[in-house]
Amino acid sequence: MKFPRGSGILLHPTSLPGEFGTGDLGPEAFRFADQLSAAGQTYWQILPLGPTGYGDSPYQSLSAFAGNPLLISPRELVVDGLLDERDLEKIPDFPKDRADFTAAAEWKNQIIGKAFSRFKNDADTERRHEFDVFCEMHSAWLEDFSLFRAIKSSQGGKAWLNWPTKFKLRDERTIEIAAEQLAELIESEKFTQFLFFRQWMKLKAYCNKLGIRIIGDIPIFVALDSADVWCHQDQFKLEAEGSPTVLSGVPPDYFSKTGQLWGNPIYDWEAMQQDGFRWWISRVRATLSMVDIARIDHFRGFIAAWEVPGADKTAENGKWVNAPGQKLFETLQSNLGELALIAEDLGVITPEVTGLRDRFGFPGMRILQFAFGGDSKNHDLPHNYVQNSVAYTGTHDNDTTIGWWRSVSGYGSTRDAVAVTHEHEFCLKYLKSDGSEINWDFIRAIWSSVADIAIAPFQDVLGLGNEARMNLPATANDNWSWRVRKDALTDDILERLRDLTELYGR
Fold first, then answer.
1. Which pLDDT band holds residue 255 (cuts at 50, 70, 90)?
2. Mean pLDDT across the chain, nearest whole number?
3. 344 catalytic residue (yes or no)
4. Residues 6+ away with beta carbon under 8 Å from 30
5. Quick check: pTM over 0.85?
C-alpha cells in the first residue's frame, strides 16, 4: 500500500509525561496530539500496546491482542464517573523523567479495582450494555486472555510453564473448574481491557480528526509467557511439557558479537498453514482495527527465522529455517484486503526478503544512523532512498542521534574506534555539517528525501543524548523507561519542525 507523503514522531505512550508513574492515554496524550498537529505532522508512531511481562518490554507481551493496563488514564476514569477526584488525592511520589513500571502497576491496579467495584455497583444500563458488547466483539481472544491472567494471578504471577501440569497443559476439567472459581477475577480482567480499548479508541479518533495517522507495531514473535502460546501450544515448536524446542533471535550483528537471543518460541508454520493461518488473520485484523498502519517487526523472519536451540544462552549457534511468508501474506490479503503494513526489513536481508516485501507493495525502512559505515552505495544514504519507504533518523533500538554522535567504540554496537571515526567523518561530509546540531541535520536529511514517510524519535526533535535512549538490544535491564518532561517541546522547537515539514512538502 502506498502512503501519502508526510512526517511524524516516534513516541510510545508510556514515555509521555504525567503524574501516575508512566505515560498514559489521558490529557498528556491528547496534548501531544495537538502538538503534532501544530507542527504539521501527519504520523504518530508507537510501539506495541500489549500488556508487558518480563523486562517491561513491549516486545514481550502477555498477549498479542490485549492492551496494557498501565496506559489506562485515571483522569479519564474520573471523567467517566468511575472514580472520584478524592480517589486521586494520594498519588505516590513517582519519578518524572523515568517510568517506574513496578510501582505504577501496583498503584494503578488498586485504582482500576476501585473503578471495577463502582462499575459493578453503580453501572447504568448504557455502560453495562457497552461492556457486554465489547466482551462479545472481542470474545475470540478476551475469554482466553482473561482466564490466563486470572490463573496467573492465582499462581502468584508465575509463568505458565511453571504452573501445575493440569493447568499448564490445559486439562479440560481443570480449566472449567478454574473458570468457575475465578469468575470474579476473570470479569475484572475483561473490565480492565474494556477500559483500555475505550480510552485508546477515543484517543485514536481524536488523532484521526486532526489528520494524524497512528503507526502501530506487530512484533513477528510473541512472548513464551503469553496467553497466545498457552492457548495455542500446537501452533508453536514446543516440547510435550511446553518448553520451547527452539528460540528466536538473530546472529551476531551491529548490536552484539554473540547475536541477540530474544527468547520467543518459534511458530510451527506447518500447523498454522494447515488451519489457514487463522491466528494470524485474527491478529492482523485486530491490530489494524486499533491503528491506521502497522509496522511488522523483523520482516525477514517471514522468509527464514534464526532458530536457536532451546537450551542455549546466546544466539551464536542458531540456523536459518524457512517460513512460508508468501502464502501467509496471500492469505492475509485475501481475507483482509489491501494491507496497511510497513516491513521492518533491517538486518540480514536477502533477495527473497526484498522480493516478498515488493510483491505485496510494503514500504521498507531506511535508518540514517546506519548510513555512514560504508561508501556512497550504502542503502541507508538518502540519495539511495526510494519513494515507497519509511525513513528514520533512528529507531527505538538505536541510540538517540546525539547519543550516536557522541558514541565511542565498544558501547551500544560492535563498531571499533576506526569504524566510529570513519562514520563521523563521512557523516559530516555528507550532510555538510559541523556537528553542532547533528540531530537537526539528520531530521533535515530524511525530511528532504523522496521517502514517502519520514519519522524521527521524539528524543531527536528535542536534542537529547544517550540518557534518553529507549532500548539497548541484547540487554535486559534499564530499557523502555525513558519519559519526556512536560515542557520539553518548546514553541521554538515546534516552529522549527513545522517549518522543515512545510519546506519539504510533508
1. low
2. 94
3. yes
4. 203, 206
5. yes
Active site residue 297: yes
3-class secondary-structure state, position 395: coil
Q: What is the DSSP letter of 345?
A: -
Which band of pLDDT confidence, cut at 50, 70 and 90, is reported for residue 413? low
pLDDT at 254: 67
Residue type, 378: N
Contact 18, 26 (CB under 8 A): yes
Q: Which of 225, 297, 380, 399 is catalytic?
A: 297
- Outline where 366-480 has alpha helix (H): 401-405, 417-431, 438-447, 458-462
Contacts of 409 (CB under 8 A, 6+ apart): 415, 416, 417, 419, 420
Nearest to 461 by CA among 500, 413, 502: 500
Q: How far is the C-alpha of 33 from the C-alpha of 43, rounded, in Å?
A: 10
Cell numbers placing 62: 502477555
Over its C-alpha atoms, the chain yields an Rg (Å, rounded) of: 23
Which pLDDT belongs to residue 76? Answer: 97
Residues 6+ apart with CB under 8 A from 192: 69, 72, 112, 116
User: How many C-beta atoms lie closer than 10 Å to residue 136's C-beta?
Assistant: 9
C-alpha to C-alpha distance for 355 and 299, rounded to whole angstroms: 12
From 76, 397, 399, 460, the catalytic residue: 397
Active-site residue flag, 397: yes
Query: Of 140, 127, 126, which is closest to residue 231 (Cα–Cα)?
Result: 140
Task: Exactly one of 28, 189, 217, 344 is catalytic; name it.
Answer: 344
pLDDT value, residue 261: 87
The pLDDT tens digits for 321-368 are 999 999 999 999 999 999 999 999 997 789 999 999 999 999 999 999
Q: What is the pLDDT of residue 36?
A: 98
Q: What is the mean pLDDT of residues 171-181?
A: 96
Task: Give the pairing type, strands 364-367 and 389-392.
Answer: parallel
Beta bridge partners of 390: 365, 453
- Contact present, 326 and 277 (Cβ < 8 Å): no
Res 297: pLDDT: 94
Domains, the chain, with CATH or none: 6-63+206-503 (3.20.20.80)
**Dihedrals phi, psi of 405, to nearest 5 degrees:** -65, -35
319-322 and 389-392 beta bridge pairing: unpaired
pLDDT band at 412 (very low <50, low <70, confident <90, very high): low
